[in-house]
Amino acid sequence: QAFQDKLLEQCITAEDGGVIEIPEGRFLLNKPLSVDGKKHITIRGKGVGKTVLSFLHQSEGGEGFLVTNSNGVTMEGFTIQDAKGNNIKLLNCDSVVMRDLNSTWTSGVDSTNGDYAYYPVQCSNLLMERCEASYSSDAGIYVGQTVNVVVRNCYAHHNVAGIEIENCINSDVYGNKAEQNTGGILVFDTPGLPLHNGRNARVYDNDCIENNEKNFGKVSSMVSMVPPGTGIIVMGTDSAEFHHNRVKYNKTIGISVDSFGLTGKPFNDSLYGQYNTAIYIHDNVFDSKTLSMPDLTKDMGKLVALGLKGY
After folding, report:
1. pLDDT digit string, tens, across residues 292-301
2. Which stretch of DSSP H or E encloses residue 174?
3. I want to staple 294 with a disulfide (CB 3.0 to 4.6 A). Which of 102, 146, 201, 252 is the partner?
4. For residues 223 and 160, is the Cβ–Cβ distance under 8 A?
5. Beta 94-104 vs 285-287: how paired, if at all?
């Protein structure tokens, strides 16, 4: 309790340009940590696996670590586990660096796990590198409604979606490994969000390997439609390029390019276009030796099976 109170106080009283140092050890926290309205703040642990923040017995709030309305945020060098909602959320932040982090749920594959391991949304100028995400019931590495995004050299495994880029502008996703998720990499544009017309995603030099995990997403979530065995899905976005990825041993889909209409969800958003435009896919490597019948409990799986004419 004393450690938690001290860390909460540090987060509130930290001055612009300051560093919140989290010592080595495993710390059980029952309240979310929150930083708001700071400039050039660094939140630093002693290293992945050395500094561990556990929210296994969280009794208040949804997020584990929430950073809002801040400019110049660096988060690095710690493990975060088992928040009730999202392990790390950043909202309305600019110039964000997230590096050398591990975010997971220790219960393993479980639909009651939190949605997102990393959840930067409505941000700008984001760099995420050398981060690991696992066992999210939605997306491990999620970036939403953000302008100027780099996600590189990260590792996402055993999530429903490994890496998801949604309604973002100017995204580079490269050097990552997405394996043993339900779906490896998703680039989506969806209706009803403040930032419309996601575009200019460049997804290259990634490994999307054996994304055959069962879909344990919440029924209401967008990713609940993804059939196990999906490498990459592109949906409703514009001007996206996918090249020099290694998409192997995904049993259902290598790369799928779909309209939002595939979801069957109605929408009332006059600014939203549900079809993809200017999608360029080239120089990828596929290995389909493990192809099998799609999961027919998912509508998308049924469509794939129909397209394959009974394969």
Report:
1. 655 555 555 5
2. strand 169-174
3. 252
4. yes
5. unpaired
Residue 59 burial (10 A CB sphere; 0-12, 13-18, 19+): exposed
Q: pLDDT tier at 264 (50, 70, 90 boundaries)?
A: confident
In tens, the pLDDT along 80-136 reads: 999 999 999 999 999 999 999 999 999 999 999 999 999 999 999 999 999 999 999
* Predicted local distance difference test score (pLDDT) of residue 262: 86
Pick left, alpha or beta for residue 264 (phi over 0 → left; psi -120 to 50 → alpha; otherwise beta). Answer: left
Q: If you write DSSP's letter for every residue of the chain in order, what string do you get?
A: -HHHHHHHHHHHHPPTT-EEE--SEEEE-SS-EEEES-EEEEEE-S-TTTEEEE-TT--S-S-SEEEES-EEEEEEEEEEE--SS-SEEEES-EEEEEEEEEEE-TT-S-TTS-SEEEEEES-EEEEEES-EEE--SSEEEEEES-EEEEEES-EEESSSEEEEEES-EEEEEES-EEESSSEEEEEE--SSSSS---EEEEEES-EEE---------TTSGGGGPPSSEEEEEES-EEEEEES-EEES-SSEEEEEE-GGGG------TT---S-EEEEEES-EEE-TT-----TTSHHHHHHHHHTT--
The residues with which 19 forms a beta bridge, in sequence order, are 42
Task: Confirm if 311 and 259 have CB atoms less than 8 A apart.
Answer: no
CA dihedral 129, 188, 156, 68 (to 10 degrees): 50
